[in-house]
Amino acid sequence: MTDKANPIRFGILGCAAIAHKVSRAIGLAPNATVVAVGSRSLDKAQRFIAVNGLPPATRAHGSYEAVLDDPAVDAVYVPLPTSLHVRWAVAAAEHGKHVLLEKPTALCAADLDQILEACRSRGVQFMDSTMWMHHPRTARMRELLSDPNRFGPLKAIHSSFTYGGGDPDFLQNDIRVKPDLDALGALGDAGWYCIRSVLWAADYVLPRTAIAHHGCVKNQAGVILSCGATLVWDDGQVATFHCSFLSNLTMELCVMGTRGTLHLSDFVLPFEETPAKFKLATDSKFKELHIGWQPLPSEHVISTDLPQEALMIQEFSRLAGSIRDSGSKPDEKWPIITRKTQLVLDAVKESIEKGFEPVNVTG
């Protein structure tokens, strides 16, 4: 059994801002610990360890290679720019390390396939770090979406994730607007969450077609700052999403069925760390004289002792521990979900590049 007495030992490749949050999550998870941090600068790795209050025995390495060569490291968390993912995720797998990879996981599905094949061939666990997938709210919402008496067949989905609000410093200096670092821009960063939420609501059935919306905004280097798309399924289901670095912080998800509507305004990151809310309206009608709704939507509050990022670490470590301790096979659920997300993202990007023409989603 994997616990704090026998935890999965993490090495962190890089000291990106998100790594501060994830290092805290590793500390909170009952079956994981950080044992090494690597940076291109030894001093930067040492500062990261100190600032985040990591265990005193945590080793600082002045290169990513040193983390992979560290025999005490079971798994790596990789928060590097997307352009570096193939190189370092493949190298980690080849060193026998389990791979928790920041999103977007790759610049295209062909690159992602190299990573997944390396993990598959070495028998290591792969997971992307889409944290909201691990909140118990997500599981409860799935139960309700599957209830024919409360939701019914799925008809439409809309997802929005925007932030930044046009902050000049972010738009000029952040790695997510640099073509050599994160060339997918807002589509890769915020759009990844939107696409994942759409696929989650559709129970991971891929749409047939992606059609990017006119009005895509790019910076002078050609990196997407704002975009959206419509996704269409063979059975008539439809989804739309919008992602942007130019609007106020917004995280809306609305899922519509024949009998019900599920809605939440914080699907990526809950407003509060432990309780998380959503609303479900079922068999909604107008009141007499159209002066209101009946019945009113029900509000659901789902609480958790651990934040969603720590639950992600806990699940990843459970899977890695099962491989280590019981000889289990890696769980294929997570690579499959990641690849489907990447395929839709690729199709939207291709539609933008083709002048907003429809593009088939093919795997």
TrEMBL record:
Alphabetized Pfam families for the sequence: GFO_IDH_MocA, GFO_IDH_MocA_C3
Gene transcribed to yield this protein: LOC105041682
Domain Gfo/Idh/MocA-like oxidoreductase N-terminal: residue ranges: 8-127
Family that this chain belongs to: Belongs to the Gfo/Idh/MocA family.
Protein name: Uncharacterized oxidoreductase At4g09670
Domain GFO/IDH/MocA-like oxidoreductase residue range list: 140-262
GO molecular function, one term: nucleotide binding
